[in-house]
Design brief:
Chains A, B: This is PLP-dependent aminotransferase family protein. Chains A, B: Keywords: Aminotransferase, Pyridoxal phosphate, Transferase. Chains A, B: It comes from Planococcus wigleyi. The structure is a homodimer. In chain A, the strands form three sheets. Chain A has an eight-stranded mixed β-sheet with strand order 2-9-8-7-6-3-4-5, sandwiched between helices. In chain A, strands 10-11-14-13 form a four-stranded antiparallel β-sheet, with helices on one face. Chain A has a two-stranded parallel sheet with strand order 1-12. In chain A, helix 3 packs across helix 7, helix 5 packs parallel to helix 6 and helix 9 packs parallel to helix 11. Helix content of chain A is 39%, strand content 14%. The first copy, chain A, folds into two domains: 120 residues, Alpha-Beta Complex (Aspartate Aminotransferase, domain 1); 239 residues, Aspartate Aminotransferase, domain 2. By secondary structure, the first copy, chain A, is an alpha/beta fold. In chain A, helix 4 links the parallel strand 3 and strand 4. The relative contact order of chain A is 0.17. At the A-B interface, helix 1, helix 3, helix 4, helix 7 and helix 8 of A face helix 1, helix 3, helix 4, helix 7 and helix 8 of B.
């Protein structure tokens, strides 16, 4: 058993004590409802006693599924009982989809850059990829259309699955425009591929919520993957898939870790005690402020050659430092007391990612964000080869 | 995607209200420590706040692993840090092992009967099996030796993996004798296969604990799978694998649902507050009494042609009713108010299992066990074709 890439979690650098964490895609600690979850567990076990501690039987297991189905409905997706599967986070959902749809012949289309864990998952199944660059409006569907047309003309294999994070993307923070969403769905129909819509950040819009691909999907081509990790607590491992029953059936068959009754029933108990929309609005206002703070600090401290995308939601700011290999920058940044994730980990061809880095505004406090960006600027100031005259900031 | 067998959980019949549950392989409700787990969560979240609700960071995640490693050591297995992987129950552990070791060419040796979920898992990978019958001393290693010798002589493929539940087996309740344990390990060395030792019930001995295969394994041929489902709470989904680092590495790679911090840290918090040996002794005395009650009731109510094995631990009694198809008996039993699992679900060749059924003494109360066996006897009395004169009870 040999692995071509680094082992899992290689991008997780060991952080020195006191390091300002601009690397962690974690929720803000104060927004993780630990007190509410303590109460949710007490209520759950007082009411149900041993039920949520068995394999089956807690009424809150179906209640969680019902909550997720209703939530999907408010977002324009009517998922029937057998069209939604609760999973252990989005990662298990992606892995199950890969397992059911892919084999070592399959071609998978992915954004460049994209979520590194998803890349790792797909690479357990196939070595064949089509990468589509991202710009400030997300996946470049015109480029995808050209690539597909070219492959068709030359008789080359077409993708079976396209993996996208259309909203507040990881790592770029970009959002696929409505026009491109429509175009992508047309291409899926024209070239007969399925779309895995990873919506882990989709409920974290600062102002509005873009329309889901799944809500625009009239041909059952979209497999929607959701997660409560970013909006409640990642440690509860609650994700789900909404898709055609013919997909959900085999996913369920291959999901051999069974349900997680304690996690799922606890989540249901937590959700029944809160107003979820108010909860989300609370998150959005905090993260919007933290994002604004990070963008101001970048503007204030970073040299003009450095550029970034402006996110409208999510956790991340994607920064480009021309001429710098950010993985070589990282040890200096850690020594100075600030962390980030080098861009190369988000690309299949890691060379493409050298000048980028991902900053997260979700975990650190506003004060830490300002200090962290300032430290980063100092480290970059030492490392940057030749400051350019113009900025391509947006 | 087509499935040759029934969908998952087909053996879980829908129970009418008030049905006496002799089907459920669940722990006794009063022994599931729901109050202690409520306190464990409160202590955990008061002390660690958001830590166990993130992806990483709770000190209790490594503490749980440490507990399991120490526990293994008390049972004669020294597993280093990189020789143990915590999983979501034994099922995920078995699935990961199958994923890493098997392909569609692989031959797998399994006991007949055996745990139905494991059969389903293996069937996701290969169609090739060698089945070895079980008697009152467990897997018949002499038969296995003959089969292997014969295959070798005829140039037929030899098994890559043998799956066994050597102690208090599911469904038969039998325990592999020490002599056969030695023989099995010799055969693994001689014919070059690995052994998956599923020890889900191994800590539930009424009197003593047989020596683990893994503790006798001098050639790194045994992959040990443990579980806290039967001794603490299945709904927490805590299992583990202890094996060579060269096995654990790829298992970890394919384990794409990540850790389950809330479940794992809660379990660690629970375990640190109890004396585990006392906890196990408490379970053993309750289950021993319930088993004795079930055996007495079987002796009292069932016709002489019916036979069973006498378990020394675990959850189950395996009953044979000659001439009866127990899957046809089930609807009548459910109508009468008692459930069991038909034997056929525990066999790859379901025809072999027709006259058997699995009774569980773990979940029902002693009163319910007596009543349930009495109801079962009435249903069998109607169904049994021709009572034999002799009994082969043991």
């Amino acid at each position: 058993m040999a692995f071509k890439n680094d082992p899992p979690g290689q991008w997780l650098s060991t952080l020195p004590p006191g390091c300002l964490r601009l690397s962690s895609g974690y929720p803000e600690p104060a927004l993780v409802p630990s007190e509410e979850i303590k109460l949710a567990v007490a209520r759950l076990l007082d009411e149900e006693r041993d039920l949520p501690l068995h394999y089956l039987g807690s009424p809150r297991i179906p209640q969680l599924k019902e909550f997720l189905r209703k939530r999907m409905a408010t977002r324009g997706v009517e998922a029937a009982e057998d069209e939604l599967l609760v999973t252990s986070g989005a990662c298990q959902a992606i892995d199950l989809i890969a397992r059911v749809l892919l084999d070592d012949e399959a071609l998978v289309a992915v954004e460049a850059p994209t979520y590194m864990e998803a890349l790792e998952i797909f690479q357990n199944y196939t070595e064949h990829y089509l990468t589509i660059p991202i710009d400030e409006k997300g996946l470049q569907t015109e480029l995808l259309a050209d690539l597909l047309a070219d492959r068709k003309v030359h008789g080359q294999p077409l993708p079976r699955l396209l993996y996208t994070i259309p909203t507040y993307q990881n790592p770029t923070g970009t959002t696929l425009s409505l026009e491109r969403r429509k175009h992508l769905l047309e291409l899926a129909e024209q070239y007969d591929f399925l779309i895995l819509e990873d919506d882990a950040y989709g409920e974290l819009g600062f102002q509005d919520r873009p329309q889901l691909l799944k809500a625009m999907d009239t041909n059952n081509r979209v497999l929607y993957v959701g997660s409560l990790s970013k909006v409640v607590a990642p440690g509860m491992r609650i994700g789900w898939v909404a898709a055609d029953e013919r997909i959900i059936d085999p996913l369920n068959w291959f999901k051999k870790d069974l349900n997680h009754p304690f996690d799922q029933a606890t989540m249901a108990s937590f959700l029944e005690a809160i107003n979820f929309d108010e909860h989300l609005n609370g998150l959005a206002s905090v993260y919007e402020a933290k994002c604004a703070t990070m963008l101001s600090a970048l503007e204030e401290f970073l040299p003009p050659a450095v550029s970034w995308f402006t996110p409208k939601g999510g956790y991340f700011v994607w920064v480009k430092i021309p001429g710098v290999d950010t993985s070589e920058l990282l040890p200096k940044a850690l020594a100075a007391g600030v962390s980030f994730v080098p861009g190369k980990y988000f690309f299949l061809n890691q060379q493409e990612g050298l000048p980028y880095l991902r900053l997260s505004f979700s975990y650190a406090s506003e004060e830490e964000i300002v200090k962290g960006v300032e430290l980063l600027a100092q480290v970059i100031g030492i490392s940057i080869p030749q400051p350019e005259q113009e900025t391509d900031r947006q």
